[in-house]
Amino acid sequence: MAATIFAYFAFEAYLNHIGPIVCAEEWFREREFFGGEGGERYRGTLGKAQFLADHLGVELDRGHRPFQTVIELDTRRDAVVHGRTQHFDVEIAFKAPEHIKRVDPVMYEFADEAFVDRVLRDVEKVGMRFSALHWRHLVSPKFLARARSSACPATRPGPF
User: Fold this and answer.
1) Across the 160 residues of the chain, what is the mean pLDDT of every consecutive 10-residue run?
2) Nearest residue to 52 (alpha-carbon basis) of 34, 37, 66
3) pTM score, two decimals?
4) pLDDT given for residue 125 in this prediction
């Protein structure tokens, strides 16, 4: 479980690293913009990824891997962070208590070896898509002109 959660944290941290470089104005108002001001499309970590993808020209196909895995990871991360008691309403017929089959909580899905492997590979693939394009952005004339400007939000102190 730790590997998948930390893969998610690393992905989010990477988005927060390139965000101020690519879209300084929005990242200067990060909490407001990605907390609702940017609309439902840009809400939360997946919204940050979509926003950056839109600005960098990165294709994120929500219905296919590797981004589909990131979406699934986001859902599972929410289940851990905003955990609730899971109730089971099951009727079981048995002869002896030791023969009762165990009902595993959703949390155990994080420990599935195939899921962990898929998460590590797919999060890296999505991150590499951003990486390949965000470096190109750094040398663009628009970015360089903005970086030289004293009004550049990226040079002001902010939440990033």
Assistant:
1) 90 93 86 80 91 89 93 88 79 79 75 90 92 68 56 44
2) 34
3) 0.74
4) 93
Q: How far apart are CA 88 and CA 93, in angstroms?
A: 15
Query: What token pair was written down for 111?
Result: 């420990």
DSSP 158: -
Cα–chain center distance at 27: 16
CA distances from 140 to 54, 127, 146 (A): 17, 20, 10
Q: 79 burial class (0-12, 13-18, 19+ CB within 10 angstroms)?
A: middle
Rg, C-alpha atoms of the chain: 20
